[in-house]
Design a protein that fits this description.
The longest helix is centred in the middle third of the chain and has 17 residues, at 104-120. With 249 residues, this protein is of the alpha/beta class. It has one domain: TIM Barrel. It has ten helices and eight strands. The protein is globular, with a radius of gyration of 16 Å. The chain has an eight-stranded parallel barrel, surrounded by seven helices. Helix 2 (31-43) packs parallel to helix 3 (61-71), helix 6 (155-167) runs parallel beside helix 7 (187-196) and helix 8 (210-219) runs parallel beside helix 10 (236-245). The chain starts with a helix and ends with a helix. Strand 4 (92-98), helix 4 (104-120) and strand 5 (124-132) form a beta-alpha-beta unit.
Length: 249
C-alpha cells in the first residue's frame, strides 16, 4: 500500500524525526529563482515543498507546481490562502481551518464552496488546524483573514486552541507567525502546545536562522516551514536543513 504524505508525517513524529519544508510563493518567484530553489532543495534533502501564499494574484500556480514535479521528487504540498489556489498537479493539500480566529468563512464557509472541486482534484486532503500567532507586526494573513492573531504571550490560549482542533478531528496543527513576521513564535508557546497534543505540529513564520529552526524542533515542532528568509538568501536552505536533520538519529 502506498504511504500517504500524512502517514509519512505521522510516522516521522512517532520516530521523533524532524522535517523541513521550504515555502514557495508563486507571486514572489521567477523562473530562474525557482529552478535554483529546487536545485538547492534537492541537494539539502528538503523534505517537502509547500506552495502557496496569502493572495496569489498571478496565474503561475500550475506552472510552479509543474516545474517542481518535473525537476524533483520532493513532495509538493499546497498551502492555499483561498479556495481557488488549488491545482491537481500537486501531491497534497493542507485543507486549512483558521481555528485561532472567529471568521466563520475561514472556519467552514470557504470549505463548503471549495469542497466539490477539492474532492474531484485527486489530491491527498489533509485537514489542518491553522493558528495565527502574533509575530510583532500586522501580516498579510491577519489582514486578509480579518482575524486577530493569538498574543505571543498567551500560551494557554494557544494550547487550548490546538487541543480543540485535535479533538475536532484535524490531523495537523500549523502555528504560523505569518509571512514577514518580525518575531518567530516563542519557544515556550511551542513547548506548551506540543505538550498537550499528540498530532504533528508544524511551525513557521519569522524563522530566519538555522539555530532558530533547530531550537523550535527541540521545543516540539515536527516540521519547520521557512519562506521569506530563503527567498532573500537561498543559501539558508542548506544551513536550515542540516540543522534540522542533525536532530534525526
Amino acid at each position: 500500500m502506498k504511504h500517504t504524505i500524512h502517514d509519512n508525517i505521522s510516522k516521522a513524529k512517532v520516530n521523533a524525526q524532524k522535517a523541513f519544508a521550504v515555502l514557495i510563493d508563486p507571486d514572489k518567484i521567477d523562473d530562474a529563482t525557482l529552478l535554483k530553489t529546487i536545485e538547492l532543495a534537492i541537494l539539502a534533502n528538503v523534505d517537502y515543498l509547500f506552495v502557496g501564499g496569502s493572495l496569489v494574484v498571478t496565474d503561475t500556480l500550475d506552472k510552479v507546481v509543474s516545474t517542481i514535479k518535473a525537476k524533483s521528487t520532493i513532495p509538493v504540498v499546497l498551502f492555499p490562502g483561498s479556495p481557488d489556489q488549488i491545482t491537481p498537479k500537486a501531491d497534497a493539500l493542507l485543507y486549512l481551518s483558521l481555528i485561532s480566529g472567529r471568521n466563520p468563512e475561514l472556519l467552514i464557509g470557504q470549505h463548503v464552496i471549495s469542497a466539490p472541486f477539492v474532492r474531484q482534484s485527486g489530491l491527498e486532503i489533509i485537514p489542518v488546524g491553522y493558528m495565527l500567532v502574533d509575530g510583532g507586526t500586522p501580516t498579510t494573513v491577519s489582514y486578509i483573514s480579518n482575524t486577530n492573531p493569538i498574543p505571543a504571550n498567551k500560551n494557554d490560549i494557544a494550547s487550548c486552541t490546538a487541543m480543540a482542533g485535535e479533538m475536532l478531528g484535524l490531523k495537523l496543527i500549523y502555528m504560523d507567525a505569518g509571512s514577514g513576521a518580525q518575531s518567530a513564535i516563542p519557544t515556550a508557546m511551542i513547548q506548551q502546545v506540543a505538550k498537550y497534543i499528540q498530532i504533528p505540529l508544524i511551525v513557521g513564520g519569522g524563522i530566519t536562522t538555522a539555530d532558530k529552526a533547530k531550537e523550535n524542533c527541540l521545543a516540539g515542532a515536527d516540521i519547520i516551514v521557512v519562506g521569506n528568509a530563503v527567498e532573500k538568501d537561498p543559501a539558508l536552505i542548506h544551513e536550515i536543513a542540516a540543522a534540522i536533520h542533525s536532530l534525526n538519529k
